[in-house]
Amino acid sequence: MYQVDLNADLGESFGSYTIGLDSEVTKHVSSANIACGWHAGDPMVLDATLALAKERGIAVGAHPGYPDLMGFGRRNMACSPDEIKNYVTYQLGAFAAFAKVHGLEIQHVKAHGAMYNTAGKDLKQALAITRAVHDFDPNICLLALAGSKMVDAAAELGMKCASEFFADRGYEEDGSLVARTKEGAMISDENQAIERVIRVVREGKVRAVTGNDIAVRCDSVCVHGDNAHAVAFVKTIRERLTAEGIEVCPFGAFV
User: Fold this and answer.
1) pTM
2) Where are the beta strands (DSSP E) in the chain?
């Protein structure tokens, strides 16, 4: 039996601003990465999103990012490893308090945006994030880009790590994501995206932008639900996975 998790970034609304269709996407995913208030979200949104996740029976994880609400955490910041460690600890602490109130266990931590991308290539930053999680609770799983420095950091500290695959993003031959500024960065054909997911789950391979196949581990597939079209895609991909005999479940069940 093949198994895979479907995860989505949730809880990204802020004050009077609503971002994403969380109530719809939670009907189809098995894990949620929930913003902790620094790149997106706020205490009210965090509370409501955890309540929704509990109602839908999906696993939850903290989604810490840079302190950059205006840039949605997508701008690079020059931060020392100590700063990164404390930024993650701070956000994880807030997330854990709300999770405890709702009686939910923390399955994982997944860095957001620019922090995620930098840690994927910079071992020092990857270790800073991993140490923050390890010191808080070494049983929490890391969710990281397959083959990235975050995976190496988790191994160095002896922590569980789930490898993430992006259904709608192009891959370079080294396993990194194609920069959004380059051709081939986004996969717009839904059928192509779904076939890529099915193949990577079954064979552990994906076609890079160069046309060559590369090996990619896939424990969890990142999907988006920020518009009606995206939600429809999430629904379709789950239905196709089920039809292909691939069980969709939280990666905490098999990693």
Assistant:
1) 0.95
2) 2-10, 31-35, 59-63, 106-109, 141-145, 161-166, 205-207, 213-215, 220-222, 246-248
